Protein: Mevalonate kinase
Organism: Microbacterium imperiale
Amino acid sequence: MTAPTDVPIAPDARLHVATHGSAAEPGATGRAGAKAILLGEHAVVYGRPAIAIPVRALGVEAHARPATGPGRLSSTLYHGPIAQAPDRLNVTLTAMRAALAAAGKPDAALDISIDSSVPAERGLGSSAAVSAAVIEAVLGACGLTADDETMHELIQTAERAAHGAPSGLDARTVRARAAVWFDGGRIEPVAVGDDLVFVIADTGVRGRTREAVAAVAERRESDPRGVESALDELGELATALRDDVSTGARDAIGRSMSRAHVLLNGLGVGDPALDHLVHAATAGGALGAKLTGGGRGGCVLALARDAASAHDLSDRLTRAGAAAVWTTTVEGAA
Ligand SMILES: C[C@@](O)(CCO)CC(=O)[O-]
């Protein structure tokens, strides 16, 4: 049986009645993945390009279904009535409300469960991934699907609750399946010449994207020339990196990553725990390493020479004190 066709649809949202679904199973599932920024965080906020990669080992699954009473939320952070959810779930609730408003059902009561392996506040796109999964599930429970642009706008509504004026890079990348080039608010696929194996190491220190974005803005006020020159160089590195990724030039990619880390430190978004893991990665054979995401904590992204050395690199980073380590491969065409 197909989903009902009489769902009221808000006039400005580009939503479609789902073609799958069953009256016997009224719930719906949404999914999204983690992301890591290969190069260009912070510079994207000022219009420079960036490259990001999906992290397939980590993801979010959300399920939504019409509630029989007041809606309830179930996640690792909170179990209970949605009406009493704590402030730290503001982003999730914003995502849910944005999707319900777009569906023209702002007062619908849903039971929502969220299962996420993406660590929160580590620069891996947890807030955007949770929002994307919740929005897809909520729309699905209303019998709807959204086109890419509508999904993006809805995720951005939640991202604004997370950190003010997001560039849209996270919102785009958590739904991407391959490496993406982000420029002017849009993504396109990046050609990948050869497999690239990355190790992601968590400092265990909470990343503070909102604070880090504000710190760059302040520094730009006090030192416009210095900051603009760093942002320009980050943009140039991203452009060169795109070519290097397409030809599989690992050494050049690694060098650009390490240079980006220095520039990001200069913008004031570093942290001693990030530097410690960056040094451990390069001492452990990484071709380059940098902070990834908002910074001031969170994760380091390191490029391994190959899959075998990624194993040793992971061990090295664990011994250096990483709270968690993941490996992710960006597959080349070859
Ligand atoms: C720091 C930043 O560039 C990336 C956060 O993952 C912020 C943004 O793009 O909105």
About this structure: Residues 19 and 84 are 34 Å apart (CA to CA). Residues 41-42, 44-45, 123, 166-167, 169-170, 209, 213, 293-294 surround (R)-mevalonate (CB under 6 Å). The chain is about 40% helix and 25% strand. Confidence is low (pLDDT under 50) at residues 1-9.
